[in-house]
Amino acid sequence: MMSTNLIPTGNSSNDVYFQSLRNQMVEEQIRKRGIHDARVLEAMSAVPREEFVPIGSREQAYCDWALPIGWEQTISQPYTVAFMVEALGLRGDEKVLEIGTGSGYGAAVLSRLAAHVHTVERIRELADMARERLQRLHYGNVTVHFADGSRGLPEFAPYDAMISTAAASSLPPPLVAQLAPGGRIVIPIGGFTGQTMSRFTKTGGDLVQENLGLFAFVPLIGEYGQRPASFP
Fold this sequence. Notes:
Blueprint lengths: L11 H19 L7 H9 L20 E4 L2 E3 L2 H11 L6 E5 L5 H7 L4 E6 L2 H13 L5 E5 L12 E6 L8 H6 E12 L4 E9 L2 E10 L17
Parallel strand pairs: 3-4, 3-6, 4-5, 6-7
Antiparallel strand pairs: 1-2, 7-8, 8-9
């Protein structure tokens, strides 16, 4: 299995090199595809994606595809991250719940756009690695939890916004219960062959659903996911 340990570059020439790749990624893969929220573009330009991929994959960190991070998980394509984050419509004062921490990259991007991010990961090793990485890189407004993300995180609810990096067959009821009035959930909904990215907005006692297009994600695993899993 490939190593998933990550180390800082610690080299100014490397920093300049990766920043140039980051700027090119934002222009070619994100802005030109219709992402125009200035705060999202700034966040994508600021977060060092190379720190969130395996060392052997750093040269591919800014390529236009997902990358494996171990444990049969991936770091999402940059455009997908930007698309989902923009769909949340964050202003900067929100408390956000992310389901599926992975390497911690999405949480790092969200941390630059919200007041606080709670992120939940079902694989303990990934949760521990993401926690260490985010602390080392000084993302102080992110809290990593090892738990079943399909249950949400009721002890810190309500949330102004939620985002899921795994696909559910239907919207998990706990997420609806933990969403604040006016809050938004961005989550892929569908089976194993493809899903529809959906945005749910809580308006009064109702949920308004919007179809944001077709995507492909790994399934949400947990009590309210597509496959069950055991958690403490």
